[in-house]
Design a protein that fits this description.
binds uracil, 3-stranded mixed sheet, alpha/beta, 302 residues, Uracil-DNA Glycosylase, subunit E
Length: 302
């Protein structure tokens, strides 16, 4: 008789499997509870889990992450860990709740970035009850020095994008997928994103925005747990629920997520600013916002 999974557990398991698929991993094995290393692995074939483990079509964009078969003896424990109530969930004040998450993060040494020259952890900044959240990739040199996301050149452009929407930086919340600067501003590795993003998921569940804007491919792919080109990802809303955490607000069951270009990319290719503006207009419409009259200050230099 098929076993019925708790819906939350099923969701967490589906997200985990999607995550492994994204890394190019499609073959899963489970050790029996009494299993020892070396036991014959059992294929996971729960019929009630609606997750495709088919390999992607050739030509579909997949990252350079290698295909491999992995044994997942600890998957059930991991999932229970992932959906265990978080300490901030019993706290209604978002400022206090964010503080709890920050304290939980501590002087983080969970991934290699802590020993690759980071000066400090860049947690996130802004309105703890923001309707709109921006999520970037990871701190650069300026952010690492100042402890605040998007304070360098890309940050100035992001500020202008926010202003063009008719709001102030202080009204939104800004964070990154990874909270420590990758050396030389390299793209964060998949495992670094996976290690750090649960803290971002918790921040999102506390802030309970109406819309999250993913800035660039790393943010989009990590938040959506899918791999596609920016062209494919932009131009629509996704239903987004932070993975592995529940909000303490029964009325908040996730939000919309939109993808746009990273401001650093727009600095390199300003011709794409018009496209980014279209993305922001879509967000503004969703939030019932009206752009101030006049030219878009981040698109047209005055
Ligand atoms: N780029 C990012 O992705 N995040 C920052 O905070 C700064 C630059």
């Amino acid at each position: 008789m098929p076993r019925t999974l708790d819906p939350e557990l099923r969701r967490a398991l589906a997200a985990r499997i999607r995550y492994y698929n994204e890394m190019g991993i499609y073959d899963f094995y489970r050790q029996p509870p009494s299993g020892r290393a070396g036991d014959v692995p059992i294929a996971v074939d729960e019929p009630e889990i609606a997750v495709s483990t088919n390999r992607p079509e050739s030509g579909e964009e997949m990252s350079s992450w290698k295909a491999a078969a992995v044994a997942m003896p600890a998957i059930e424990e991991n999932i229970f860990d992932a959906i265990a109530p978080k300490p901030e969930q019993s706290v209604s004040d978002p400022v206090k709740a964010l503080k709890i998450i920050r304290e939980d993060l501590g002087d983080c040494t969970r991934c290699v970035l802590h020993k690759q020259g980071r000066k400090q952890i860049v947690f996130g900044v802004g309105n703890p009850a923001a309707e709109l959240m921006f999520v970037g990739e990871g701190p650069g040199a300026d952010e690492d020095a100042q402890g605040e996301p998007f304070v360098g050149r890309a940050g100035q452009l992001l500020n202008n994008m926010i202003k063009a929407m008719g709001i102030e930086r202080e009204q939104v919340y800004i964070a990154n997928i990874v909270k420590c600067r990758p050396p030389g501003n390299r793209t964060p590795e998949r495992d670094e994103c996976a290690t750090c993003s649960p803290f971002l998921m918790r921040q999102i569940a506390v802030i309970k925005p109406k819309v999250v804007v993913a800035l660039g491919a790393v943010a989009a792919k990590t938040l959506l747990a899918m791999s596609a080109s920016m062209m494919q990802l932009r131009g629509r809303f996704y239903d987004f629920r932070p993975v592995g955490v529940r909000s303490n607000d029964p009325n908040w069951d996730g939000c919309k997520l939109a993808v746009t270009y990273h401001p650093a990319f727009l600095l390199r290719d300003p011709r794409q600013k018009g496209e980014a503006w279209k993305d922001l207009q879509m967000v503004m419409k969703e939030l019932g916002m009206k752009a101030p009259s006049g030219r878009w200050s981040f698109v047209v230099r005055r």
